Amino acid sequence: MRILHHLNPGFGQFRWVVLLLAVAVILPTVCLLWFMNEVVKNERIVVRQRLTTFYRNRLAEAYAKVNRQWADSCRQLERRPSLHPYRQFVSLTGQGGYQGFLAYDDAGRCLYPVVSTDPGTLARPSEDFRTVWEMEFINHQYERAAELYEEQARISDDHGRLAAYIGKSRCLAKLGRLDQAIAECRLRAAFSPIAETGDSRSLALIARARLLLLGWMQNKATPNAKDRTGGFRPDPSYASLYEETFRKLLAMLYSANGAGFALPADENLFLARKVLEIGQATGLLDKNADLLRGTSLPTLMEVEERSIRCAEQFQSVDLFREWQDDTLQPLALGESVLYGVIHRTTRGSCIALLGRDNIMAAVAEYVGTFEDANVDFRILEEGGRFVAGIETTSREPCAAGPLGRYFPGWTVQLFFKGGDVFERAASEHVAVYTWTGVLFILLILVSGAVAAQSIGRQVQLNKLKNDFIATVTHELKTPLASMRVLVDTLLEGNYRNPNQVTEYLQLISRENERLSRLIDNFLTFSRMERNKQAFQMCPVSPVSIARTAAEAVKTKLGRGHCCFETEIPDELPTIRADHDAMVTVLVNLLDNAYKYSSEDKCIRLSAGAADGAVCFTVRDNGLGIPRRALKRIFRRFYQVDRSLSRRTEGCGLGLSIAKFIVDAHQGTIAVESKPGQGSTFTVRIPVAP
Ligand code: ADP
Question: 7 lies in a domain?
Answer without folding.
Answer: no
